[in-house]
From TrEMBL:
Protein name according to UniProt: 3-hydroxybutyryl-CoA dehydrogenase
GO molecular function, one term: oxidoreductase activity, acting on the CH-OH group of donors, NAD or NADP as acceptor
Positions of the 3-hydroxyacyl-CoA dehydrogenase NAD binding domain: 1-179
Homology family: Belongs to the 3-hydroxyacyl-CoA dehydrogenase family.
Alphabetical UniProt keywords: Oxidoreductase
Species the sequence originates in: Trametes coccinea (strain BRFM310)
Site (Important for catalytic activity): residue numbering on this chain: H141
Cytoplasm recorded as keyword: no
Annotated Pfam families: 3HCDH (PF00725), 3HCDH_N (PF02737)
Gene3D superfamilies: N-(1-d-carboxylethyl)-l-norvaline Dehydrogenase, domain 2, NAD(P)-binding Rossmann-like Domain
Protein backbone atom coordinates (compact mmCIF):
# COMPACT_ATOMS: atom_id res chain seq x y z
CA UNK A 1 0.00 0.00 0.00
CA UNK A 2 2.96 2.30 0.65
CA UNK A 3 3.90 2.10 -3.01
CA UNK A 4 0.31 2.83 -4.05
CA UNK A 5 0.29 5.94 -1.84
CA UNK A 6 3.64 7.03 -3.32
CA UNK A 7 2.19 6.46 -6.81
CA UNK A 8 -0.88 8.68 -6.35
CA UNK A 9 1.25 11.32 -4.56
CA UNK A 10 3.70 11.52 -7.47
CA UNK A 11 1.21 11.11 -10.34
CA UNK A 12 -1.87 12.99 -9.08
CA UNK A 13 -0.71 15.32 -6.29
CA UNK A 14 2.56 15.85 -8.24
CA UNK A 15 4.61 16.23 -5.04
CA UNK A 16 8.16 14.98 -4.44
CA UNK A 17 8.04 11.62 -2.64
CA UNK A 18 10.63 9.97 -0.40
CA UNK A 19 10.14 6.22 0.02
CA UNK A 20 11.54 4.22 2.91
CA UNK A 21 11.21 0.51 3.75
CA UNK A 22 13.43 -1.62 5.97
CA UNK A 23 13.41 -4.24 3.20
CA UNK A 24 15.43 -3.46 0.06
CA UNK A 25 13.52 -6.24 -1.74
CA UNK A 26 10.19 -4.51 -1.02
CA UNK A 27 11.55 -1.22 -2.39
CA UNK A 28 12.77 -3.01 -5.51
CA UNK A 29 9.48 -4.77 -6.20
CA UNK A 30 7.51 -1.61 -5.35
CA UNK A 31 9.47 0.52 -7.81
CA UNK A 32 9.16 -2.10 -10.52
CA UNK A 33 5.36 -2.13 -9.95
CA UNK A 34 5.37 1.66 -10.22
CA UNK A 35 7.25 1.46 -13.55
CA UNK A 36 4.70 -1.11 -14.80
CA UNK A 37 1.72 1.02 -13.74
CA UNK A 38 3.19 4.14 -15.37
CA UNK A 39 3.92 2.25 -18.61
CA UNK A 40 0.33 0.89 -18.61
CA UNK A 41 -1.12 4.38 -18.08
CA UNK A 42 1.02 5.71 -20.97
CA UNK A 43 -0.04 2.85 -23.26
CA UNK A 44 -3.72 3.51 -22.41
CA UNK A 45 -3.27 7.23 -23.14
CA UNK A 46 -4.11 8.15 -19.53
CA UNK A 47 -0.87 10.14 -19.18
CA UNK A 48 1.87 11.22 -21.58
CA UNK A 49 5.31 9.63 -21.65
CA UNK A 50 6.70 12.94 -20.40
CA UNK A 51 4.25 13.13 -17.46
CA UNK A 52 5.13 9.53 -16.54
CA UNK A 53 8.84 10.35 -16.53
CA UNK A 54 8.22 13.47 -14.43
CA UNK A 55 6.18 11.42 -11.94
CA UNK A 56 8.88 8.73 -11.72
CA UNK A 57 11.56 11.39 -11.22
CA UNK A 58 9.60 12.76 -8.23
CA UNK A 59 10.16 9.49 -6.34
CA UNK A 60 13.41 8.91 -4.45
CA UNK A 61 14.38 6.20 -1.97
CA UNK A 62 15.90 7.10 1.41
CA UNK A 63 17.73 4.71 3.72
CA UNK A 64 16.90 6.58 6.92
CA UNK A 65 13.58 8.04 8.12
CA UNK A 66 15.50 11.07 9.47
CA UNK A 67 15.72 12.15 5.82
CA UNK A 68 11.98 12.92 5.96
CA UNK A 69 13.01 15.84 8.21
CA UNK A 70 11.51 18.71 6.18
CA UNK A 71 8.63 16.83 4.55
CA UNK A 72 5.15 18.41 4.68
CA UNK A 73 3.68 15.02 5.52
CA UNK A 74 4.73 11.46 6.30
CA UNK A 75 2.29 8.60 5.61
CA UNK A 76 3.19 5.45 7.52
CA UNK A 77 1.97 2.15 6.03
CA UNK A 78 3.62 -0.64 8.05
CA UNK A 79 1.70 -3.73 9.20
CA UNK A 80 -1.20 -3.58 11.69
CA UNK A 81 0.86 -3.65 14.87
CA UNK A 82 0.34 -0.98 17.52
CA UNK A 83 3.79 -1.28 19.15
CA UNK A 84 5.53 -1.09 15.76
CA UNK A 85 3.54 1.99 14.76
CA UNK A 86 4.09 3.67 18.14
CA UNK A 87 7.86 3.13 17.87
CA UNK A 88 7.91 4.67 14.40
CA UNK A 89 5.79 7.67 15.42
CA UNK A 90 7.96 8.26 18.50
CA UNK A 91 11.06 8.48 16.29
CA UNK A 92 9.37 10.55 13.59
CA UNK A 93 8.09 13.02 16.13
CA UNK A 94 11.53 13.40 17.71
CA UNK A 95 13.45 13.66 14.41
CA UNK A 96 11.23 15.64 12.05
CA UNK A 97 10.26 19.28 11.72
CA UNK A 98 7.38 20.21 14.06
CA UNK A 99 5.47 21.31 10.94
CA UNK A 100 5.46 17.80 9.41
CA UNK A 101 2.06 16.09 9.59
CA UNK A 102 2.34 12.50 10.80
CA UNK A 103 -0.34 10.40 9.08
CA UNK A 104 -1.00 6.71 9.56
CA UNK A 105 -2.64 4.40 7.02
CA UNK A 106 -3.77 2.09 9.82
CA UNK A 107 -6.92 0.08 9.03
CA UNK A 108 -8.22 -0.18 12.56
CA UNK A 109 -5.81 0.89 15.32
CA UNK A 110 -6.62 3.87 17.57
CA UNK A 111 -5.13 7.05 16.07
CA UNK A 112 -5.38 8.54 19.56
CA UNK A 113 -3.06 5.83 20.98
CA UNK A 114 -0.59 6.34 18.14
CA UNK A 115 -0.69 10.12 18.70
CA UNK A 116 -0.07 9.68 22.46
CA UNK A 117 3.16 7.82 21.68
CA UNK A 118 4.65 11.05 20.25
CA UNK A 119 4.65 12.90 23.58
CA UNK A 120 8.33 13.77 24.16
CA UNK A 121 10.07 12.00 27.03
CA UNK A 122 9.66 13.85 30.33
CA UNK A 123 6.68 15.85 29.02
CA UNK A 124 2.96 15.33 29.53
CA UNK A 125 0.02 15.43 27.10
CA UNK A 126 -0.94 18.88 28.41
CA UNK A 127 2.53 20.46 28.13
CA UNK A 128 2.88 22.68 25.04
CA UNK A 129 5.40 20.15 23.61
CA UNK A 130 2.97 17.27 24.21
CA UNK A 131 0.10 19.16 22.60
CA UNK A 132 2.22 20.21 19.60
CA UNK A 133 3.46 16.69 18.86
CA UNK A 134 0.12 14.91 19.27
CA UNK A 135 -1.97 17.51 17.42
CA UNK A 136 -0.17 16.79 14.14
CA UNK A 137 -1.08 13.07 14.07
CA UNK A 138 -3.99 11.98 11.86
CA UNK A 139 -5.44 8.85 10.24
CA UNK A 140 -5.46 8.67 6.41
CA UNK A 141 -6.84 5.27 5.48
CA UNK A 142 -6.31 4.34 1.82
CA UNK A 143 -7.86 1.29 0.11
CA UNK A 144 -6.21 -1.43 -1.92
CA UNK A 145 -5.27 -1.14 -4.78
CA UNK A 146 -4.58 2.52 -3.95
CA UNK A 147 -4.25 3.74 -7.57
CA UNK A 148 -7.73 2.35 -8.34
CA UNK A 149 -9.84 2.80 -5.21
CA UNK A 150 -11.41 6.25 -5.00
CA UNK A 151 -11.78 6.60 -1.22
CA UNK A 152 -9.66 7.77 1.69
CA UNK A 153 -11.06 7.65 5.23
CA UNK A 154 -9.98 10.63 7.31
CA UNK A 155 -9.80 10.04 11.06
CA UNK A 156 -9.06 12.62 13.72
CA UNK A 157 -7.49 11.45 16.97
CA UNK A 158 -8.88 13.24 20.01
CA UNK A 159 -5.68 15.34 19.92
CA UNK A 160 -5.65 16.16 16.16
CA UNK A 161 -5.78 19.90 15.37
CA UNK A 162 -8.18 21.38 12.81
CA UNK A 163 -5.21 22.54 10.75
CA UNK A 164 -3.76 19.00 10.60
CA UNK A 165 -7.14 17.59 9.61
CA UNK A 166 -7.66 20.12 6.83
CA UNK A 167 -4.12 19.70 5.46
CA UNK A 168 -4.57 15.92 5.43
CA UNK A 169 -7.94 16.26 3.67
CA UNK A 170 -6.42 18.58 1.04
CA UNK A 171 -3.61 16.09 0.43
CA UNK A 172 -6.04 13.17 -0.09
CA UNK A 173 -8.07 15.27 -2.54
CA UNK A 174 -4.88 16.28 -4.40
CA UNK A 175 -4.14 12.54 -4.71
CA UNK A 176 -7.40 12.25 -6.67
CA UNK A 177 -9.45 10.73 -3.82
CA UNK A 178 -12.85 11.37 -2.29
CA UNK A 179 -12.76 11.70 1.49
CA UNK A 180 -15.12 10.25 4.09
CA UNK A 181 -14.67 11.13 7.75
CA UNK A 182 -14.91 8.69 10.63
CA UNK A 183 -14.61 8.92 14.39
CA UNK A 184 -11.59 7.20 15.93
CA UNK A 185 -13.38 3.92 16.76
CA UNK A 186 -11.90 0.42 16.20
CA UNK A 187 -11.94 -0.27 12.44
CA UNK A 188 -13.40 3.21 11.72
CA UNK A 189 -16.44 2.95 9.38
CA UNK A 190 -14.92 0.82 6.62
CA UNK A 191 -13.48 -2.09 8.56
CA UNK A 192 -16.07 -2.06 11.36
CA UNK A 193 -18.53 -3.01 8.60
CA UNK A 194 -16.34 -4.97 6.18
CA UNK A 195 -14.58 -7.30 8.61
CA UNK A 196 -17.69 -8.88 10.23
CA UNK A 197 -18.91 -9.56 6.66
CA UNK A 198 -15.65 -11.26 5.65
CA UNK A 199 -15.58 -13.16 8.94
CA UNK A 200 -19.17 -14.41 8.44
CA UNK A 201 -18.19 -15.64 4.97
CA UNK A 202 -15.24 -17.54 6.47
CA UNK A 203 -17.56 -19.01 9.15
CA UNK A 204 -19.97 -20.11 6.39
CA UNK A 205 -17.10 -21.98 4.75
CA UNK A 206 -15.99 -23.38 8.13
CA UNK A 207 -19.51 -24.70 8.82
CA UNK A 208 -19.83 -26.18 5.32
CA UNK A 209 -22.80 -24.00 4.42
CA UNK A 210 -21.44 -23.60 0.88
CA UNK A 211 -18.26 -24.04 -1.13
CA UNK A 212 -15.76 -21.18 -1.43
CA UNK A 213 -16.81 -20.76 -5.08
CA UNK A 214 -20.52 -20.51 -4.21
CA UNK A 215 -19.93 -18.10 -1.33
CA UNK A 216 -17.97 -15.79 -3.65
CA UNK A 217 -20.36 -16.26 -6.58
CA UNK A 218 -23.28 -15.21 -4.35
CA UNK A 219 -21.77 -11.78 -3.83
CA UNK A 220 -20.20 -11.31 -7.26
CA UNK A 221 -23.36 -12.17 -9.18
CA UNK A 222 -26.04 -11.60 -6.55
CA UNK A 223 -24.81 -8.24 -5.27
CA UNK A 224 -22.45 -7.08 -8.04
CA UNK A 225 -19.41 -7.02 -5.74
CA UNK A 226 -16.20 -6.99 -7.82
CA UNK A 227 -14.80 -9.79 -5.65
CA UNK A 228 -16.47 -12.34 -3.41
CA UNK A 229 -15.67 -12.10 0.33
CA UNK A 230 -13.17 -14.99 0.38
CA UNK A 231 -11.36 -13.67 -2.68
CA UNK A 232 -11.35 -10.21 -1.08
CA UNK A 233 -9.95 -11.57 2.21
CA UNK A 234 -7.14 -13.25 0.23
CA UNK A 235 -6.55 -9.97 -1.61
CA UNK A 236 -6.34 -7.89 1.60
CA UNK A 237 -4.15 -10.52 3.31
CA UNK A 238 -5.45 -12.98 5.88
CA UNK A 239 -2.95 -11.79 8.50
CA UNK A 240 -4.19 -8.22 7.99
CA UNK A 241 -7.83 -9.38 8.25
CA UNK A 242 -7.02 -11.24 11.47
CA UNK A 243 -5.12 -8.29 12.98
CA UNK A 244 -8.03 -5.94 12.20
CA UNK A 245 -10.57 -8.40 13.62
CA UNK A 246 -8.51 -8.78 16.80
CA UNK A 247 -8.41 -4.97 17.18
CA UNK A 248 -12.20 -4.85 16.69
CA UNK A 249 -12.80 -7.69 19.15
CA UNK A 250 -10.51 -6.43 21.91
CA UNK A 251 -11.35 -2.77 21.28
CA UNK A 252 -15.13 -3.26 21.62
CA UNK A 253 -15.40 -6.45 23.68
CA UNK A 254 -18.25 -7.38 21.33
CA UNK A 255 -18.42 -11.10 20.47
CA UNK A 256 -19.75 -10.32 17.00
CA UNK A 257 -16.15 -9.42 16.08
CA UNK A 258 -14.58 -12.70 17.28
CA UNK A 259 -12.33 -13.96 14.46
CA UNK A 260 -13.21 -17.39 13.11
CA UNK A 261 -11.01 -20.30 14.14
CA UNK A 262 -10.47 -21.15 10.46
CA UNK A 263 -9.00 -17.69 9.81
CA UNK A 264 -6.69 -18.06 12.81
CA UNK A 265 -5.52 -21.50 11.68
CA UNK A 266 -4.86 -20.31 8.14
CA UNK A 267 -2.69 -17.48 9.47
CA UNK A 268 -0.96 -19.98 11.82
CA UNK A 269 -0.15 -22.01 8.69
CA UNK A 270 1.23 -18.89 6.97
CA UNK A 271 -1.51 -19.15 4.36
CA UNK A 272 -1.85 -15.41 4.07
CA UNK A 273 -3.73 -15.11 0.78
CA UNK A 274 -2.52 -13.68 -2.53
CA UNK A 275 0.78 -12.37 -1.17
CA UNK A 276 1.91 -15.79 0.11
CA UNK A 277 0.59 -17.74 -2.91
CA UNK A 278 -2.00 -19.60 -0.82
CA UNK A 279 -5.17 -18.62 1.01
CA UNK A 280 -8.76 -19.62 0.29
CA UNK A 281 -7.49 -19.98 -3.28
CA UNK A 282 -4.07 -20.81 -4.75
CA UNK A 283 -2.04 -18.12 -6.52
CA UNK A 284 0.75 -19.67 -8.56
CA UNK A 285 3.65 -17.18 -8.89
CA UNK A 286 3.61 -15.35 -12.25
N1 LIG B 1 -2.34 -1.79 -8.46
C1 LIG B 1 -2.70 -0.83 -9.34
N2 LIG B 1 -3.67 -0.97 -10.26
C2 LIG B 1 -4.30 -2.16 -10.30
C3 LIG B 1 -3.97 -3.22 -9.45
C4 LIG B 1 -2.95 -2.99 -8.49
N3 LIG B 1 -2.59 -3.92 -7.59
N4 LIG B 1 -4.78 -4.27 -9.73
C5 LIG B 1 -5.57 -3.89 -10.74
N5 LIG B 1 -5.28 -2.62 -11.08
C6 LIG B 1 -5.90 -1.81 -12.13
C7 LIG B 1 -5.64 -2.42 -13.48
O1 LIG B 1 -4.39 -2.02 -13.99
C8 LIG B 1 -6.80 -1.87 -14.29
O2 LIG B 1 -6.52 -0.54 -14.66
P1 LIG B 1 -7.05 0.03 -16.06
O3 LIG B 1 -8.52 0.18 -15.92
O4 LIG B 1 -6.34 1.33 -16.20
O5 LIG B 1 -6.64 -0.99 -17.07
C9 LIG B 1 -7.95 -1.83 -13.26
O6 LIG B 1 -7.32 -1.85 -11.97
C10 LIG B 1 -8.85 -3.03 -13.38
O7 LIG B 1 -8.02 -4.20 -13.26
P2 LIG B 1 -8.30 -5.59 -13.99
O8 LIG B 1 -9.08 -5.32 -15.24
O9 LIG B 1 -7.02 -6.33 -14.09
O10 LIG B 1 -9.12 -6.42 -12.95
P3 LIG B 1 -10.54 -6.18 -12.36
O11 LIG B 1 -11.46 -5.44 -13.26
O12 LIG B 1 -10.91 -7.52 -11.90
O13 LIG B 1 -10.29 -5.21 -11.08
C11 LIG B 1 -9.84 -4.79 -8.83
C12 LIG B 1 -9.39 -5.53 -10.09
C13 LIG B 1 -9.78 -3.28 -9.06
C14 LIG B 1 -8.88 -5.17 -7.73
C15 LIG B 1 -11.33 -5.21 -8.51
O14 LIG B 1 -11.42 -6.61 -8.44
C16 LIG B 1 -11.85 -4.64 -7.21
O15 LIG B 1 -12.27 -3.48 -7.15
N6 LIG B 1 -11.83 -5.47 -6.15
C17 LIG B 1 -12.27 -5.04 -4.81
C18 LIG B 1 -11.15 -4.31 -4.16
C19 LIG B 1 -11.54 -3.81 -2.80
O16 LIG B 1 -12.62 -4.02 -2.28
N7 LIG B 1 -10.60 -3.11 -2.18
C20 LIG B 1 -10.73 -2.65 -0.82
C21 LIG B 1 -10.15 -3.66 0.10
S1 LIG B 1 -10.36 -3.18 1.78
C22 LIG B 1 -9.05 -2.18 2.07
O17 LIG B 1 -8.16 -1.97 1.27
C23 LIG B 1 -9.01 -1.58 3.43
C24 LIG B 1 -8.01 -2.24 4.30
O18 LIG B 1 -7.95 -1.52 5.49
C25 LIG B 1 -8.33 -3.68 4.61
Amino acid sequence: MGLGIAFVSAVHAKVPVLLHDKSAAQIKSGLSLMDKLLAKDVSKGKITQEAAKEARDRVAVVDDMKKFRDADMVVEAVSENLALKQGIFRSLSADLSPKTILATNTSSISITKIAASTIPEGKTASDPEGQASTSRVVGLHFFNPVPVMKLVELIAAVQTSKETLERARAFAIACGKEVSSSQDVPGFVANALLMPFLNEAIMCLEKGVATREDIDKTFKLGMNHPMGPLQLADFIGLDTCLAIQQTLYTGTGDSKYRPSVLLERMVDAQWLGKKSGKGFYDYPSE
